Amino acid sequence: MALTFTPFPDLGNACPEFKLPATDGKTYSLKDFPTGHPLVVMFICNHCPYVQAIEDRLIQLGQDLKKQNVSVVAICSNDAKSHPEDSFENLKKRAEEKSYPFVYLYDESQEVAHKFGAVCTPDFFVYDKNHKLAYRGRLDDSWKDASKVTKRELYEAVQTLIKDQKVSEEQTASMGCSIKWI
């Protein structure tokens, strides 16, 4: 497990186009998430201990944002040959077991991860109502222990965008396992 931190974000960049299969049997592209509301894209996987530690908080985030018409999209781009836990079949099982309130996409070719510049799991991208990057930081201030969270940074960034305000450029990088490249 190689600990990786996200780089400083290129704020203002447009959300990259994508078209990927989802665990719900559908295929989604960027056009399925219309402008007018913020969009959260997170690169996660099944096997990463960093993702596992925050999984329940990701589910809560998805539930909270769904009520506010904010789309949350998860993408797994890990090589399933080296990490079978991250195979499409296992992603489907996990999403169903945990009742993920967000779309879970499979990026088998890893092309989408490269387009986004994703480097680790978890890696979070929050886009404003025009699908311009506004936040690329961590979920909250305590990845390891949910009881010690005092600030839900990603959630707060989305709330700022909902109010049509600019998110602070002072953002703390997310950290996690490096994406398992082919």
From TrEMBL:
Give the molecular function GO annotations: antioxidant activity; oxidoreductase activity
The coiled-coil segments of this chain are none
List residues of the Thioredoxin domain: 9-160
Task: Note one Pfam family from the annotation.
Answer: AhpC-TSA
Q: Which InterPro entries match?
A: AhpC/TSA (IPR000866), PRX-like1 (IPR047262), Thioredoxin-like_sf (IPR036249), Thioredoxin_domain (IPR013766)
Protein's recorded name:
Alkyl hydroperoxide reductase
What organism is the protein native to? Bdellovibrio bacteriovorus
